[in-house]
Specification:
Layout (H helix, E strand, L loop, with lengths): L3 E5 L2 E4 L11 E10 L2 H7 L16 E9 L11 E4 L30 E5 L3 E3 L6 H4 L2 H12 L7 E5 L3 H12 L3 E6 L2 H9 L4 E4 L6 H8 L4 E6 L3 H10 E9 L13 H5 L3 E4 L5 H14 L5 E5 L4 H10 L5 E5 L3
Parallel strand pairs: 8-9, 8-11, 9-10, 11-12, 12-13, 14-15
Antiparallel strand pairs: 1-2, 3-4, 3-6, 3-15, 4-5, 5-7
Helix pairs in contact: 3-4, 6-7
The structure holds NADP nicotinamide-adenine-dinucleotide phosphate.
Amino acid sequence: MKPWQILEWGKLGQGEFSSLPLSATQVRVKVRAISLNYRDHLMLRGHYNPKQPLPLVPCSDGAGEVVEVGHEVTLWKVGDRVCPIFSQSWIGGPPSKERISQTLGGPLDGTLRPEMVVNETGLVAVPVHLDWEEAACLPCAAVTAWNAICDQPAGSRIVVQGTGGVSLFALQLAKAAGMEVLLTSSSQEKMARARALGADHCLNYRENPEWSRAVRAWARDGVDCVVEVGGAGTLEQSLRCLKPGGKIAMIGILAGASSPINVLPILMQQLRVQGVLVGNRDDFEAMKRVLERAQIRPVVDQRLPYEQAPQAWERLASGQHFGKIAISGCW
Ligand SMILES: NC(=O)c1ccc[n+]([C@@H]2O[C@H](COP(=O)([O-])OP(=O)(O)OC[C@H]3O[C@@H](n4cnc5c(N)ncnc54)[C@H](OP(=O)(O)O)[C@@H]3O)[C@@H](O)[C@H]2O)c1
């Protein structure tokens, strides 16, 4: 089986498989499952980083089995089930230019290939209750959702936008932590599924362009946090949802990356707009403990065979998915 590669912008194809050499501190991982993020859709189209050299193995989310270890490796042994971390050199502590630059699926080759070679520090053990495709959902989407909400105490009220990968993890993690969650969606059917996952209240953002009013009807004093995956196009509504001192966890750009914005509410209400770029290995470990304690299973929309990987991009672009789209490994 061959690695999938972005050969030119908009074009996925299969390159040649060559087994990479292993240094003393590296680990060889047989990739057993991969999952897609919206970032991979942007990357394929050349919208994420048009200067990225090609070909590139796409995707940052995945899970696999350790099949070989370098002679100085102490953290892993053959047979261990692992996930690679998104930023391979960000183990802990605050972000720095160096720590957030070594990310899978661009600029580094990603997970959509038969095997990967990574430093032993760039891995986290898979939670035992998850199968391969479920585990493959964690590295980017779940860690991002965790970082968006982990500072909110039990009883907080939060807004989660849409029913994509990050948002459903935010819903599940927030409910496990005792928060109240309002979820927005463009689909009645998806809202029913979100309620079954624990959403306390749902509203249709397409039918209610001024949806902050409905949020205010639900939480009269405002909410504590908005998990902002819409970006510039939804920020104004999100700011109107917040109580004084509330937080926007700024994550995505599904509704655009730039737009004129009235900053007055930010200063008058002492709001916080906090950017999130996934997180580090320590964040992954902390999130994993919550998944294990609450026995949370990622929501997998579809599981596609390896050879049908391009269809995963089509499914994501259609917007019909609920949660994460997974691709099984080629083994
Ligand atoms: N900063 C980071 O570290 C980080 C990490 C991961 C992702 N992201 C970003 O976060 C965003 C979400 O990523 P993802 O992988 O979770 O995407 P995804 O799985 O493709 O989620 C897409 C869903 O978002 C909802 N949506 C689309 N437009 C919306 C809007 N205007 N208002 C509210 N909801 C809307 C839709 O839900 P319904 O169908 O229910 O309407 C859609 O199905 C992307 O922009 C991605 O690049 C950032």
